[in-house]
């Protein structure tokens, strides 16, 4: 067996998880995955072990392998880390130590808005972190982006996050995530950095409220 076969099996299963093609309560057996992906059980087993180490799946006694659930606390913590890094990036841009690429951020935000409008929630879920990471780039720390992406991968596939992506579960609200960041970008363009930082702090409170709401469903 070559390393490329192991890598292929790993990437295929991981993409299926991240893009919502595997349900949170679905049992991931080596036999079913082998048949579905056209690989032998050995690379499938290796891929599942690697995904377990990455906290994307969990082995449950007498059940098999399922997607790992993220807790409400974990979701809140990841959101806080994300916002803190975006605030750091904004402060560096404010002092002239870096530049926020507003056009690139807007392009990613528009794509997220379009996915949401088209009811393509899998793409929307995967697009919004690209907005966050583009802002984080201004922090000037190359370790931030892959670290956040690894954290995000651990929560994006869970049933809690899918509840958040379903508009039928949404509580009444006067502003959306996309609107928050539209307003943030408008403040940046007007050099109102203190207000932009305050907007990010408001977003964290908003996001935490959303997570707590969905955690009770």
Description:
- This protein is mainly alpha-helical and 217 residues long.
- The chain is built from 10 helices and 2 strands, in the order H-H-H-E-E-H-H-H-H-H-H-H.
- It has 2 domains: 5-67, Winged helix-like DNA-binding domain superfamily/Winged helix DNA-binding domain (Arc Repressor Mutant, subunit A), CATH 1.10.10.10; 72-216, Up-down Bundle (Four Helix Bundle (Hemerythrin (Met), subunit A)), CATH 1.20.120.
- It has a two-stranded antiparallel ribbon with strand order 1-2.
- Strand 1 (57-60) and strand 2 form a beta hairpin.
- Helix 4 (72-94) packs antiparallel against helix 10 (193-214).
- The N and C termini lie far apart (45 Å).
Strands, helices and their partners?
Blueprint: H1 3-18, H2 30-37, H3 41-53, E1 57-60, E2 64-67, H4 72-94, H5 102-117, H6 121-136, H7 144-155, H8 159-165, H9 177-189, H10 193-214
Antiparallel strand pairs: 1-2
Protein name: HTH gntR-type domain-containing protein
Pfam families: GntR
GO molecular function, one term: DNA binding
